Structures are given as structure tokens and as C-alpha cells.
Amino acid sequence: MKNIPAIILIMLSSVFFIFCSGLSAAERDGEDMPGFEDIKALSLDECVRYSIYNSFEVKLARLDLLIAETDKMYAESVFDAFLFGSATYAEDKRQPISIFGGDDKQENFYSAGITKELLTGTELTAEWSDTRDWVNTPFVTRNPSHSAELTLEARQPVGKNFFGYIDRTNLSVTKLAIKNADLEMKDRIEDYIAKTEKAYWKLVFVKRTVDLRKNIADQARKLCETNKKNYNIGLIEKGPYYAAEANVIIRETDLGIAENNFRRAEENLKLIMNMPDPYRILPTDSFHREDIEYNLVECLNEAFEKRRDYKIRKRDVKIKNLTLKMRDNAKWPEIDLVATMAMNGVEGTFKKAFGKTTVADNTYYYAGVEVTIPVENREARSEYKKAAYEKEKAILAMKETERTIITEVGNSFRDLMTYNTSVSNMSEAVRLQSEKLEEEVKRFKYGRSWTKVLIDYQQDLLNAEMKEAIEFLARENACVELEKDMNVLFDKYEETL
Questions:
Q1: Which one has a higher pLDDT value, 137 or 132?
Q2: What is the pLDDT of residue 496?
Q3: Beta strands across the sheet bearing 123-135
Q4: What confidence score (pLDDT) does residue 8 get?
Q5: Distance between CA 369 and CA 334 in Å, rounded?
Q6: Contact of 341 with 152, CB cutoff 8 Å
């Protein structure tokens, strides 16, 4: 009968321990992390949008696209109009051969014109010129005299660069290359989105480990307090008491390491987001046990429809085909149809001479065919062979990309399905370990279990929960990889750009 109060005290202590140990990690999620006074609670969507808006990598990708777009203007410059002109003065006081020629001559020449190439390859030129002559001799009709002339010329290639084929095709190739540059920019941004999402889920994982470590550390402290009371009244030996104290030290050490890992994961995410140092991040999203459902056939269809590297490869084939045609045309001889018309006026004053250049009285016409045939033409033949090989290479690269898509999407899909199963299995293991611990706590309550057994069972539950968290993280990463392989990540945030 003397032991009845002591037994009652042990039972009350055990009940107190059971109540405290029953707090789950989920119930502690709302608690502040140590040292988190000013926290920015952010969802995955918010972190990704912040990263897209603020990261250096995204800004660099956009600048690279803007740089590539300048090639279009450069390719169009072949069709630019050019103004040209000249002004010269010549004075000649050399001794003439004839006595009718003066020994003092002056000549002023002025010209101005415009030239432009049309999309048809036609080169148009309009030039106006005036020559003023003066000589110190009476044996001339007009002194000084002005000879003004208006010249119109058209040159149409019908061989090499047939009706502007090379120039227009080169512009088309440039436009296609710019479209590829746009896809490459989106690919770089999507890679950055995937990087941000993985860093975010890493932070969610480490936060969960902190919660689990904190929960088991609290349980260890409550067990230690219970054993201390029992030891003080002589109900247990030193061994269980020391074991409980050592368990507290181990749990608190593990908690400190987990909190440091959280800070490291947080800083890594802030680096990706380019977020200022004063801010702290607390993720609001969490892992869920429901399966992430995808269909392999649908994934493959969507990947072939949206994969930007596949679009780039197909467009590369088109570019190389156009380039090959340009190189084939470059082997042709140069055959130009040329037509010129000129009207002039010769008078003593500039005004009268210029007026006659618009009257079709003094006209000049010229039409002809100019041909240049390369004898060996090694440069053009070399460029043609090179273009043919590059086209063949582009076709092989496209086929390789097709195989790559099938392999990458298939592997990512199988990874995701495997981790779905792993998460389900580990969740069941956590449930069983939790029930096992509850049963052992009941035994401990009635004095039918030992401190070491309880500590071991707590560790078993922690191991299962940690393994479950690892599988959660692996599944989220696999989901990110699958969506990246299908090129659907960018579409979710495209309106942010």
C-alpha cells in the first residue's frame, strides 16, 4: 500500500507525457520559425513571378533577344535608299596646243542623286549633274557655259540574284533566325522557372524537417522531465534518466542543424529570386499526399507540340534549305538587264540649262545586257557543298531531338509515377509507425515499457517521416522536370513577362 502514491504519480506523469507527445508536426506549422521576426510568407506562384520580374538571368535573356532582333534591320538595309553627291573645282593654266584654246580654264562640277534596290532586285538610280566651264578665249559660243543633265538608270538581275531572290531569301532566313532566338529566350526563362520551383520545394522540404525535428525534440524534453521526476522519487534508475537527457541533447542538436539547413535553402532561393538581404521567406505551400496524375501519351503529344528545341530544329532545317537554294543561285552567271535614259541642256546660265533637263528634246537612251561568267567559280561551289552538308546535319539534329523528347518525357513520367507510389507507401509506413508509437506509449503509461524502447520507437517514426519528406521532394522535382520536358512551365507565367 505504501507504493500506491508513487504508482499514481508515475501514471500522472505518463499521461502528461502522452498529451505533450501527441502534438503533430502539422499542428505546429503555424508557429514562427526561430529568429523570424519579419517574414514574407510567399507561395510558389509568388516566388516564381518575383524571380521572373527581378532576376538577372531573365533580363539577360531578354537583352539577347533584342540584340538578335537587330539583325532584321541589318538584313533589310540592302533595300535602303542612298543619297550621293559630289562637288569639284578644277583650274587649268597650262599652255594650250592651239592658239584658239585659252591658257586659263576653270571647271566646276556638281552632282546629286539617289539610288535604291527594290524587293524585285531592281536597282534604280536617279542623278542630276551640272558642269560649268569658263575659258579666257573669244573662240567659244558660250562663256561661261552650263551643261546640266538628268540621268535615270535601271538594272535588273536575271541570273545570279534572279529578281532579288538572294536578297529576299536572306531576309527570310534572318526572320526565321530571330524566331529561333525568341524560342531560345523562352527556353532560358523556363529553365529559370524550373530552377526557382525546385529551390522553393527544397525550402518546403527543409521546413518540414525542421517541424519534424522540433516535434521530436519537444517529445524528448517532456520524456526527460517525466524521467527526472521519477528518478527524484526513486522510481527509476540512473540509466533511463541519463538516456532521456542524452536524447534531448541529440534532438536539440539535430534541430539546430535543420534550422541552419533551412536558412541555407532560404538564402539559395533568395539568390535565384534576386531578393534583398533584409527580407526573410517562409513558404506557404506544403506537400500533399494525393497522386500527381499525368498520361504518358498526352505528355508526349504536348511535348511534340510545345517543345521549343524541336521547333528550333525544324526551323533550322527550313533555314538550311533556303540557304542551300541561295548558294545554288550564287553559282549562276551574273546577267543584268540595263536601261538608261538621260536628258541634258547646254546654256550660258544655270537656270536655262537646268530647265532643259526636264524637256524630252535632248534625250539619250541606252539598253543592253551585261554578262559576267565565272570560269572556275570555286567559292560559290564550295559554299553550295557546305550548305548541302549543313542541311543534312540539321535534319539529323531534328531526328535526334525527336528521340531525345521521347526519352526525356518517358523517363520523367516514369519517375513521377514511381514517386507517386513511394509517397503512398511511405505515408502508410508513417501511419503504422505512428500507431506503433501510440501503443508503446500506452504500455509506458502502465509501466510495461522502457525509456529506451520509447526513444527507439520515436526514432522509427521520425525516420519514416523524414523518408516520406524526401519522397515528397523527389516527386515535386520529378513533376517540375516533366513539365519542363513538355515546355509547359513558361505558359503558366507568360503574362508576367
A1: 132
A2: 64
A3: 82-92, 105-117, 123-135, 145-157, 334-347, 363-372
A4: 40
A5: 10
A6: yes
Side-chain-side CA neighbours of 79 within 13 Å: the count stands at 17
Angle 486-487-488 from CA coordinates, rounded to 5° = 95
49 phi, psi to nearest 5 deg: -65, -40
pLDDT average, residue stretch 234-256: 84
CA 132 to chain centre: 64
Q: Are 459 and 437 in contact (CB under 8 A)?
A: no
DSSP string, 224-243: HHHHHHHHHTTSS-HHHHHH
Q: Which three cell numbers stand for residue 294?
A: 499525368
Is the pLDDT at 423 greater than 90? The verdict is yes
- pLDDT, residue 19, reads 35
pLDDT of 3 reads 41
Q: What is the DSSP letter of 35?
A: T
**In this structure, what C-alpha cell is assigned to residue 363?**
534625250
Pairing of strands 280-283, 39-42: parallel
Q: Which of 142-146, 170-174, 467-471 has the lowest mean pLDDT?
A: 142-146
Q: What backbone torsions phi and psi does residue 275 show, to the nearest 5 degrees?
A: -95, 140
Cis peptide before 144 (omega within 30 of 0): yes
- Which DSSP string do the residues of 311-356 spell out, in sequence order? HHHHHHHHHHHHHHHHHHHHTSPEEEEEEEEEEEEEESSHHHHHHH
Ramachandran category for residue 312: left, alpha or beta (phi over 0 → left; psi -120 to 50 → alpha): alpha
Task: Give the C-alpha distances (Å, rounded to integers) separating 55 from 30, 44, 163, 370.
Answer: 30, 16, 48, 58
* Three-class DSSP category at 159: strand
Say how far apart CA 303 and CA 330 lie, in whole Å: 39
Average pLDDT score over residue span 60-65: 91
User: How many CB atoms within 10 Å of residue 324?
Assistant: 20
Specify whether the CB–CB gap between 253 and 212 falls below 8 A. Answer: no
pLDDT digits (tens, 9 = 90+) for 272-289: 998 887 888 999 999 998
- Report how far residue 108's alpha carbon sits from residue 90's, in angstroms, rounded to the nearest whole number: 6
User: In the 8-state DSSP scheme, what is residue 494?
Assistant: G
User: Which pLDDT belongs to residue 99?
Assistant: 67
Helices (H) and strands (E) counted in the chain, each on its own, are 11, 8
Distance CA 296, CA 496 (A): 29
DSSP string, 169-205: HHHHHHHHHHHHHHHHHHHHHHHHHHHHHHHHHHHHH
308 contact partners, CB below 8 Å, separation of at least 6: 183, 184, 186, 187, 190, 487
